[in-house]
Amino acid sequence: MSDENKEVLVTRPRYDRAALRSRIVHLGFGAFHRAHQAVYTDVMLNAIGGDWGHRVVKLKSGAEALQRLAENAYLYTVLKRDSRQGDQARIVGSVIDHRHPETHGREGVVAGLADAGVEIVSLTVTEKGYMLTPGGRLDLDHPEVKADLADQGRPGSAIGVLVAALAERRRQGLKPFTILCCDNLPDNGARTRDAVLAFAGERDADLAAWIEGEGRFPSTMVDRIVPATTPETEARIFDVIGRPDPDGVACEPFRQWVIEDDFVGERPAWDVAGATFTRDVAPFEMMKLRMLNGPHSFLAYLGYLGGFETIADTMADLNYAAAARALMLGEQAASFAAPEGIDLTAYADELIARFTNRAIRHRTWQIAMDGSQKLPQRMLSSLQWHVEHGRPAPLLTLGVAAWIRYVGGIDERGQAIDVRDPMAARLKADGSETPVERVRAVVETSGIFPPRLAGDGAFLDTLSQALGGLIQDGAVRSVAKVAGESKR
Ligand code: NAI
Ligand code: CS2
Q: Which atom of ligand 1 is nearest to the CA of 224?
């Protein structure tokens, strides 16, 4: 019997859904939240019951999708897929309510957070949703920040909504809620806190002081590969559960969540579902961003340019697989201190196995999105470490060169690339520049390179050479070359 035809185990909620309350509000109800935080709550509820439920919010598009989810009693499928072990499905029951600005009005969204029963507001609004400068501060010139500061009762951005809801809680004499950032940002709790305090400070210094004193912003390391849903995923979910599920998602079996244990009030016992509560998340965040996300972006840019559609397709080229592992262990691992008790070689081997999972179709194009928001924490900070220590870093350099080539907007076959990035228009190549000119232009216009790199002529020359080599040889040969050199 082929894997596709084997009977698939389907786990369903065994707890009393009527007992759940909207004690967690989630901003950014995308693929990841469905297969990560909501699953941890669902697993916990199956184990010990309780009343923790999620009220989910989308601030941008998706009003109809949320309405449809409500009509389906907020139940949806998470399909765990593994090319070696087969599939397993879970019907998740922990989501119980929603808010959307088009359905409930912007004021209704704010009220959904300010509600006295809410203990935690979690977020997965993507890196750009925090509206930060390359230095990690709230960008006061960002058009959404300006608009929300001008119309404070009706905010549209995540930070604006958080501050408006906190102001309302204070007005009502309530405690603030805990703000739990679950995006792939470095020091994600502290960055979110700084952004919220900066926004609140523009509005009212007393409000900012109250949030600073009473609020809590635990940092988290979140991990599970959850690609955007494809028609193939939808068809497979149909086969497994016997009906269509437009809200279903597919993901890998692996999941990890490390959470700083610092909440305003109560919190769910997510540890029952496998999460780790700890005092210091930073070493885990750093390890994940550099060992997983850095190589993910490397594979995404060089894979896309090399003509590969997904990460698993890219990894099937053994030079790419060797280069990814060499990047992890030969360059990234040197640049940070591993969390206590973690063996980075074993961690890297597990990552390579996860990237090779052919049942997961994670498009290189999807991961390539928003590179200007991702590169600093994934590659540029470790590249800076290498430059400061006088150590060559050919794989990181090639990865950054591939990003520069990719955001230029034309692929190796002369076809246009659909570049999705807040800086896309600024980063487009004009086609007449030499690699040296192009590197200098991108470094200057993006503003994302740390000064130590942007001001280092030798580094810029090495990066220009890598870009020149990539243009001349193409991605596949360039990767083969660095993979070969890394073995020596
Ligand atoms: P998605 O595209 O399915 O959902 C993104 C959500 O963010 C949507 O609800 C969208 O409306 C919202 N959003 C986008 N831009 C926004 C903005 N400017 N302001 C407010 N909301 C905005 O993406 P997915 O897969 O849910 O990933 C979201 C984030 O979760 C990632 O950027 C990453 O930081 C984190 N993450 C994702 C993982 C994955 O494998 N999918 C794994 C680990 C973390
Ligand atoms: C990916 C991540 O889209 C991306 O940029 O690198 O979302 C990745 O899938 C997750 O961080 C895995 O936990």
A: 42
Pocket test for ligand 1, best of 27, 29, 32 (most atoms within 8 A of CB): 32
- Verify whether ligand 2 is closer than 6 Å to residue 223 (CB atom): yes
Q: Is the CB of 367 under 6 A from ligand 2?
A: yes
Instruction: Please give the pLDDT value at position 299.
Output: 99
DSSP structure class, residue 115: S
User: pLDDT tens across 126-139, in order?
Assistant: 999 999 999 999 99
Probe target for ligand 2 pocket from 33, 225, 291, 377, with the most ligand atoms within 8 Å of CB: 225
Q: Measured between alpha carbons, how far is 292 from 392 in angstroms, rounded to an integer?
A: 21
H helices of 142-243, where? 143-150, 158-171, 188-203, 205-214, 231-241
Q: Could you give the residue range(s) of every CATH 1.10.1040.10 domain in the chain?
A: 282-486
Could you tell me if 380 and 335 are in contact, meaning their C-beta atoms sit under 8 angstroms apart?
no
Q: Is 255 in the pocket of ligand 2 (CB under 6 A)?
A: no
For residue 374, the ligand closest to its alpha carbon is: 2
The number of beta carbons lying within 10 Å of the beta carbon of residue 274 is: 13
Q: Of ligand 2's atoms, which has the minimum distance to the CA of residue 366?
A: 3
Residue ranges, CATH 3.40.50.720, the chain: 3-278
Quote the mean pLDDT of the chain. Answer: 97
Give CATH for domain 282-486: 1.10.1040.10
Q: Which pLDDT tens digit goes with each residue over 227-238?
A: 999 999 999 999
- Between CA 299 and CA 294 the distance in angstroms is 9
If you write DSSP's letter for every residue of 279-297 in order, what string do you get?
A: S--HHHHHHIIIIIIHHHH
Span 3-278: which CATH code? 3.40.50.720
Residue 1 binned pLDDT confidence (cut-offs 50, 70, 90): very low
Question: Which ranges of 243-390 does DSSP label H, i.e. alpha helix?
Answer: 282-287, 294-305, 311-315, 318-326, 344-355, 364-368, 371-375, 381-388
Q: pLDDT category, 7, cuts 50, 70, 90?
A: confident
| Backbone φ, ψ for residue 426 (5° rounding) | -70, -30
Instruction: Find the residues whose C-beta lies inside 6 A of ligand 1.
Output: 28-33, 58-60, 124-129, 157-158, 183-184, 222, 224-226
Supply the DSSP string of 88-111, one letter for each residue. EEEEE--EEEEE-HHHHHHHHHHH
Instruction: Give the separation between CA 294 and CA 314, rounded to whole angstroms.
Output: 15
